Amino acid sequence: VFGRPELYEQRGELRLRALTIERFGLGAHLAALERLKQKLAADGLFDERRKRALPRFPRLIGLVTGNDAAAKRDVLTHIVQRFPPANVLVAETYVQGPRAPVSIATAIGDLCRHGVDVIVLARGGGSFEDLLPFSDERVVRAVAGCAVPVVSAVGHEQDTPLCDLAADVRASTPTHAARLVVPDLAELRERVGALRAGLHRGAQ
After folding, report:
1. pLDDT tens digits for the chain (204 residues)?
2. pTM
3. Residue 98: CA atoms inside 13 Å, Cβ hemisphere, count?
4. Maximal CA-CA distance, the chain
5. Residues contacting residue 174 through CB under 8 Å, at least 6 positions apart
């Protein structure tokens, strides 16, 4: 609060006449994020009609994540457990700090050029400041403009960076993202077995 002090001598009162009030610290970040959110929404980046369905059997899965991150390990472990034949191309990048937004946006573009069928954007939990790169306009536009569907698995379930709104699908955790992008091989085998038995009965 910026203002001018005023002294009322008869009663010994000191007052501050406020001239301007500005948000400071976290409040400033939140206000800037809200302005950016409104701008991107007006550009149609969060429109539900532009969101695409995930491929049922992706030939190549792209994963954008940090180096040696728990989120990377969770996604890869659960993808392999559910569907061992899966092919995953990992793009390690900065996921916090001033270099993260450009690095994340570049990684998304690189994976698209490598011919992936779907991209998982994964980062574990962190503070509000740690997750700010995923609300950066460059990252949000890269997600919205991606040539293939994007699954956003950033932070915990209560966190909502702007990339979540632009992504085709939001996953509550990196583990959930793995379940979304690949089928369960055991369930597939069971279904194929049932179909095979049905065909056999029909042929008889």
Report:
1. 889 999 988 889 999 999 888 767 677 778 888 999 999 999 999 999 999 999 999 999 999 999 877 889 999 999 999 999 999 999 999 999 999 999 999 999 999 999 999 999 999 888 888 899 999 999 999 999 999 999 999 987 777 899 999 999 999 888 899 999 999 999 999 999 999 999 999 999
2. 0.81
3. 0
4. 108
5. 70, 71, 72, 74, 75, 78, 120, 122, 124, 153
Amino acid at site 100? A
The answer to whether 124 and 71 are in contact (CB under 8 A) is yes
Distance in angstroms (rounded) separating the CA atoms of residues 191 and 183:
12
Q: Which token pair is 34?
A: 């809200």
Report the phi/psi class of residue 134: left, alpha or beta, with left for phi > 0 and alpha for psi in -120 to 50: alpha
